[in-house]
Amino acid sequence: MGTFITKRLLYTILILLAASLLIFSLYAWTPGDFITGNIKLTPERKAELREIYGLNKPLLERYGIWMKHALHGDFGYSMAQQKPVFTLFNQYIWNSFLLAAVSTFFTWLIAVIIGVVAAYRQYSWFDTLVMVVIFAAMSLPSFFIGLFLIKILAVDWKWLPPGGMLTTGSNATGMAYAEEVVRHMALPVIVMTLLGIGSLTRYIRGNMIDVMKQDYIRTARAKGLKERQVLFTHALRNALLPAITLVGFELPALFGGSLIIEKIFNWPGIGQLYMQSFGLRDYPLLMGFTVLIAILTVIGTMLSDILYRVADPRVRLQ
Amino acid sequence: MATADLLEIEGLSTYFDTEEGTVRAVDGVSLRVRPGETVCIVGESGCGKSITAMSIMGLVGTNGTAGRIAGGRIRYEDRDLLRLNKHELRTIRGHEIAMIFQEPMSSLNPVLPIGEQIMEPLIEHLKLSKKAARARAIELIAQVGIARPEQIAKAYPHELSGGMLQRIMIAIAISCGPKLLIADEPTTALDVTIQAQILDMLRQFKAESDMSILLITHDLGVVAEMADYVVVMYAGKVVEEGEVVELFERPKHPYTQGLLKSKPIMGQRQDELYSIPGQVPNPLELKPSCYFYERCEHAMDVCRRAEPTLKGVGEQGSVACWLYEEEAIVHG
Amino acid sequence: MSTITGGVAESEVAPAKRPLARSSLWRLAARKLLKNKLALAGLFVVVFMFALCFIGPLFSPYTDNKIHMALMNKAPNLKHWLGTDALGRDVLTRVMQAGRISLTVGLASMVLSVFLGSLLGAIAGYYRGIADQVIMRIADLLMTIPSLPLLFILGALLSEWKVPTDYRMYIVMLMLSFVSWPGLARMVRGEVLSLREREFMQAATVLGLRDRRKLFKHLLPNLVPLLIVIASLNVGGAILSESVLSFFGLGVMPPTPTWGNMIDSANNLIDFQQRPWLWIPPGFSIFATVIAINIFGDGLRDVLDPKPKK
Hints:
The complex is a heterotrimer. By secondary structure, chain A is mainly alpha-helical.
């Protein structure tokens, strides 16, 4: 187990280094930058700023400088917002996390319940209905369903606010503040849950169907246990075991925000921040964000591997 | 008849609907088990003996199989198991009728500790508290001859050998003091030395508790060792039944005779082991006939036209074979 | 019990290994597919959408794409079933024309990424060694970078390079394949690795067959079912990705219409709130097409995959 983790860690670091160099080069090759695009600046001022930000140096040297700072926890300075990238992330990331955590919770809750029931009643009309809904959820264009629900629920029926995290100009505090946030969260959470639920339900249903055919389920029934106990104690535990690996894969989504959903719902999260900065070509921030997601992705993958080994008693001892 | 039967199956039919047609896995099987008696069902794999057991337990149609019970009665004490609702059936399963299976390695849940799996029926049926159930589970582990029961209770199935797991399965089965234990090929997956231990254990528990055993096996050695009464099945039907000594000494049905002949005998070297010629018929292509006629050395014209019924022959036994019907006619 | 059901299943799987029996395997698959009503419904919708987009415009009197000021922003009516847009063009005709592009981009990028992914995956899995190391490390690297930002960067590069709008759709195809081949390669490699170990491949080695013959005659035919399934599910994903890119103005750009860039009109507050006929029809077209493809693809998986259903 120890050598396994060390090896994984080494490989992970190598991949991360390569990925960050690739990302850095891509952003560097993208023509245009924040300074060039700013028409308010005189050519002299532009040249001066380039010098300050070190944009005149060769690519590899710039990458080296960036890396040196990054290793010290400094992801650079946002040109558009005039704040350190790290500070900005810290400011926005928790809004993203709130949205993602709540929708992940609902996604798993609903997917487990529906997946178990559909597997238990395989080939029933309920199961067929679930399958169709699963495919529907997997086939939704995220930005379109977001717009569509805003149009129906917020614009036409006025049930929920169309976007943002707080009503413009609101200075609510305490419970009133919380209530306002919850009302604003409802629509994006519904959409994100809807988008996530398809593949997870399908996965859990598939696992449950496999597990229900196992000999130990027959034993559990032969012991005269209640069906509920057979399903939830005996079958679900085994069906969820491989799903533990998915927890790791959720990591980038939990902290990395959702570019599309946050943009559509004008949610002040890190994904929305990225979309804004992309238009402005605010490279330090774009770079920081992309590397952050890459880090979360590799950590998540590694976490999945380790979690699986910890959770499964059969692998645990080997 | 001295005592009332514990279990009486009458005309049980269990069918599987497949894309190619209906497979009559169990086709009008009748048998009885008396209190304290060991009945063996013998036959080749696929003859329907396991499905008969699963039908008694009400487990047909679960585990992703498409089987259904098409007819018959399964009377246990004074109840018809096929007419009980799910709840009533569940209070009998694992409590009054328990079952152990062929594959101990896969029959226990890999992610639950052994102890918990033994505790479950104790809590469910005997309404023991968790603490009492744990104490009883450890006792049971000791009772099936496993050392260090406390540690074993905390272990997971993959940490134990197949023989130990089958002992655990027996511990689970006897935990609630069942009146009938169904053992479906309990020793097939185990080493020969372990097989004898498991069989001894079953005999010992039977002697201590007056429980009946319905033992399903293809191994005539096991039958000789365990059975009071034997039921021979072929292609979903009972072809012969009788007291064990009578059946071994004077097998009537050509199939039983073949089975006994193909069993190697200790101390006798044969140049060639006997095997019954031919193959089990395709279950989808069965026509009204004796299903064994293609392989039978005594096959007659009537055998391929009509199905023989199970008729009493001799003291206790019955056989379904035209040879004996003819005899009956001839000797009037 | 298992002998009975198991026996039936085996006789269905076994012929796959012998070329003589292969045609009957395909026939069996087709028969099974015909029984799957859901998959057939999916296939029907897919065919319908293709027919609508490729044949439909031939019957439309509004294909000239001329600007008609008098017909600006008309709500759906008898002459224009889905209304008209800000330039007075017929929305239904635009949706059909956009569908041509969206479906073409989806199909072409699927073909390209399945080709790339299966070729590289098969090479990695079959030859192992250095080829495997290089290919899979590159795949790992590309999978580490989040795909949406990657697509955005590539899209931005396109914009800055002033690629003519007519050619953008081809480059969008390339971009989509570029981000989706690593996942496919990984899947194909896994399958090849397990196939290598199977008896019939070892038999081919024992018979002394040449590498190329083993690869093309014995290995690839066994990959075909997996590839068909991957391909069908990949089309849906490609259509969705294209729509996202085009919606954000980084994919195919107007005047070339695609379903994604038609929904762009929802970014205009008045169009969004008061003229839903401009952006809802293309959105539903994407949804209907992708769900139909996914359902059909899943039906194919059930039919072609000898392994138990998931």
